[in-house]
Amino acid sequence: PLDAIEPQHVRQYLTWRGAKAQTRANREKALLSHIWNFARERGYTALANPCAGIKGFREDGRSVYVEDDEFAA
After folding, report:
1. pLDDT digits (tens), the chain, 73 positions
2. Distance between CA atoms of residues 24 and 49, nearest Å
3. What does the angle CA 37 – CA 40 – CA 43 come to, to the nearest 5 degrees?
4. For the stretch 19-57, what's the b/e string if a residue is b when 16 or more beta carbons lie within 10 angstroms of its beta carbon?
5. Chain centre to alpha carbon of residue 2
6. Which residues are within 8 A (CB) of 22 and not within 5 positions of it... i.e. 6 or more apart?
């Protein structure tokens, strides 16, 4: 249930998921945040977003630019 989800659960999930896929864990946390905000707008919950204040993993930008011929291959 929505009322049972707390920020500590989000952190535990990030730690578990981030062991193999840190970027994916960040994206899934962002998705949960969007879903939570939608639920608040629709009146399914009045609780604060449990993702707020939970830091994700650091991400670095890409170091290689893929040229058109490489993409086509």
Report:
1. 888 999 999 999 999 999 999 999 999 999 999 999 999 999 999 999 999 999 999 998 888 899 999 999 9
2. 20
3. 155
4. eeeeeebbebbeebbeebeeeeeeeeeeeebbbeebebe
5. 17
6. 57, 59
* Residue type (1 letter), 31: L
Structure tokens of 45? 């919950």
Given the structure tokens 């609780």, which residue do they identify?
A: 47
Structure tokens at 42: 């629709």
Identity (one letter) of the amino acid at 33? S
